[in-house]
Amino acid sequence: MASPAITLVFLLSTASLLFQCSYGGRTLSALVEQQPLSMTYHKGALLTGNISVNLIFYGKFTASQRAIISDFVASLSSLPHQDSMEPSVATWWKTLAKYYSTSRTPLPKLSLGKLLLDEECSLGRSLRDADIETLAAKGAPRNAVNVVLTADDVAVERFCMSRCGTHGASGRSKAGGRFAYVWVGNSETQCPGQCAWPFHQPIYGPQAPPLVAPNGDVGVDGMIINLASLLAGTATNPFGNGFFQGPKEAPLEAATACPGVYGKGAYPGYAGELLTDHATGASYNAHGARGRKYLLPALFDPATSSCSTLV
């Protein structure tokens, strides 16, 4: 039996992001007035070792869009000296080491794996949860996180209604092993106000002006935020019994325990103090491969019980 999927959803009152977990349907939670004060380790396995992140592009993505996402994944590992500007994507990932010191296991090293294209949408343009796992199975069967990325014209069950993405794990198999998977959708034409904030005006909550996307693509830059959140959750809570706050049915994980926080001083409707690209006016908080810039979510620090930001 597959482990429960963890779903990235949006908190309507603040256009912030958080996770939901359940064994069946996942619906938008009630407003959380106050976050729990600690992150609990539930003694389950974490991702460890050398992990390939395989990207499965479902639907039409331009070469530029694929490069933005591929470069982000490549940036999770330490970069060559010429690309190692700080704060970096790799530094952001390494902050998860505090979770691993608690569990006495090493932080996994992620590397870019295979890129698979399904431009003709072999399963159609309206997908259910079972379809996502079927697509994820096209990636590596072990020592991998298989990431399904759906294009802006692909509908996915409960996308934009209660979630922006999901992470989960396949069932156990003697032949192929077990893999973790992530799904993230491009929300640009369907719900950018929910799943691409702060690069789009929010539908609900405070109406601050949207930020300029660092790679010039509202949908894909929004996908990066959601993908980063889900990869952090996959590493620290891959099977639903790792690190999370609150009840198992509606947990908050490493990134989503800090909804809507990207820089210091953040509050509902305001992402916080960020770096600015003076050439484009774009907002970001992390440098990546090939001179790219990204906006990444704050991570909950289990040692201080506070949200830790890069800037």
Automatic annotation (TrEMBL):
It comes from the Eukaryota. The keyword Signal applies. Its main location: secreted. Pfam families: Phi_1 (PF04674). It is found in: Secreted, Extracellular space, Apoplast. Residues 1-24 form the signal peptide. Keywords: Apoplast, Secreted, Signal. GO terms for cellular component: apoplast. Belongs to the EXORDIUM family. This is (wild Malaysian banana) hypothetical protein.
